[in-house]
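Suppose you are handed a protein chain with no further information: no name, no annotation, nothing but its sequence. What can you learn? This example shows the usual starting point.
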Amino acid sequence: MSATDMVQLQSSDGVDFSVPRSVASMSVTLDHMLHDISRSQSDEAIPLPNVNAKALEKVIEYCKHHEKDEPVPASDAAKQEHSVHNISAWDKQFMQVEMGLLFDIILAANFLDIKSLLDLGCKTVASMIIGKTPEEIEQTFRIPTQ
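A reasonable first move is to predict its three-dimensional structure. Written in structure tokens, the prediction is:
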């Protein structure tokens, strides 16, 4: 892969990542940025002020894994959107992270406009809530009781 096929991303905490352009383009936000910058600017790292290094590393891992996925038809997407049971084994394993990182991934997916990752993060949180009492939810998410 040539250097022009790579994109430099910089996390909010100053860590640089070199990512294939096709992977970065899975983010609608980055795809628009890449179309807007000139070739002379393409060597400069794109700063991502709302995404820390740990979350960005996970986002890149997710995008690399799903890069070749076929787009889901709109009719199927609507059905899948609302089902917390329709998560692949890889995606379930991928989202088994500590709570703070889980929410950082969700925020990064929202900022970068990666709908499939945002949906996965929200489904993961929803699956942590289903069937629990309010007290169990408070305990799961470490919500202080009043």
